[in-house]
Amino acid sequence: MSQNPPNLRPDLAPKPVFDSPARPGQPRIGMVSLGCPKALVDSERILTRLRAEGYAISPDYQGADAVIVNTCGFLDSAKAESLEAIGEALTENGRVIVTGCLGAEPDYITGAHPSVLAVTGPHQYEQVLDAVHVAVPPAPDPFVDLLPAAGVKLTPRHYSYLKISEGCNHKCRFCIIPDMRGRLVSRPAHAVIREAEKLVEAGVRELLVISQDTSAYGLDLKHAEKNGHRAHITDLARDLGSLGSWVRLHYVYPYPHVRDLIPLMAEGLILPYLDIPFQHAHPDTLKRMARPAAAAKTLDEIAAWRAVCPDITLRSTFIVGYPGETEEEFQTLLDWMDEAQLDRVGCFQYENVDGARSNALPDHVPDEVKQDRWDRFMEKAQAISEAKLAAKVGTRIEVIVDTVDDEGATCRTKADAPEIDGNLFIDEDFKGLAPGDIVTVEVEEASEYDLWGRRA
């Protein structure tokens, strides 16, 4: 089975951050959070509920009375990783509750690990809590068990993922997420804004808006307005932009109304950054994927976006080696990349996924061909990235500080999302900087994916 390199897989969540010690005798729960940032938000919600009931969060297996493993089931390699994580938790702790996307296949999990305490599916919060109550009864102390206003976060304090909807209405042949998480269910806009306000009040400097299809937000609610907020991505972006933090949009399909977001970026209300899953460029490949086959029109849209907001950063992911992909189709993708000049790019080698309709397609591509095409695609993407970053040398840009140690400060520009994009490093004059600070730097050096600079 071919493996996608971990550093290029967008289904890997950031490492969790724990910073609240347990009191003596307090029941403690560990959490292993796999999968995409949407799953990370699910983990945060589970832990927030547990903290409200008096549980402490353990940062290691040995200190936990039980461990929750939030799994990913998007790719076969992700399923294998989830089973491995469950096995590790069983070995290190022995008392394991499984939830998440792979939990939609309980027999698959118990067949490999029959000793798990319970298996629940994605966003089944109540069932997870019930399983924890059975395994480790709560023992709350109302005088000392205080819950942070922003809830329990698994990311650094200065940024937070903000989930605006669940599920997806698309029927891409290679994807089983609608089968696992259902159709689009949007949160009311006023509820999203209320959560964002609490996060900003708690010190969050960057909100990362996530869903399975961000640009479809509110479609199921018929874009209803309630409490002064309309459930439409353009209105939501404008409202979030008024809170004073960075606002970054992920998983945006290139619907026509996306062009209405670009002026908000040009005005500085939201970050000039779009994460769009193009997946491929050849119309025949896109049709076999059951995705919109309008790559040429997409180039026109990209040009229009850049005309309105020249500083916009475009990130995307692609699949190479999809069933039936010919050398000509792959070459079309490479040529499209030359035209599109995307700033941030990730790539998967196609994998069969149990339950996906693409498995039944004819003319599957051999593994060695998939690897060759992945290598050629990433060589192209790397060359584009290197040239774009080299052009930033000598410019002044704003960055947000992520970490500071004895050797320097690791930061991100507005063009870089945490964990999946590049970094900007400050090696001198970094004393006094702290995570969450936003400072101006002059770029002095560039590599294929990262920048170096000094405070301006």
Overview of the structural elements:
This is Ribosomal protein uS12 methylthiotransferase RimO. It comes from Albidovulum litorale. Catalyzes the methylthiolation of an aspartic acid residue of ribosomal protein uS12. The protein is globular. The chain folds into 3 domains: 8-135, Rossmann fold; 159-390, Alpha-Beta Horseshoe (pyruvate-formate lyase- activating enzyme); 396-455, Nucleic acid-binding proteins (OB fold (Dihydrolipoamide Acetyltransferase, E2P)). Helix 11 (327-340) packs parallel to helix 12 (367-390). Helix content is 31%, strand content 21%. It is of the alpha/beta class and 456 residues long.
Query: What portion of residues is helical?
Result: 25-40%
Name the overall outline. globular
**Unreliable residue runs:** 1-19
The CATH architecture term of the largest domain is: Alpha-Beta Horseshoe
Radius of gyration of CA atoms, rounded to a whole number: 22 Å
Main beta sheet, described? 5 strands, parallel
**Highest CATH level, the class of the largest domain:** Alpha Beta
Tell me, rounded to a whole number, the average pLDDT: 89
Task: Order the strands across the largest sheet as they lie in space.
Answer: 2-1-3-4-5
In DSSP terms (H or I, runs of 4 or more residues), the helix count works out at 12
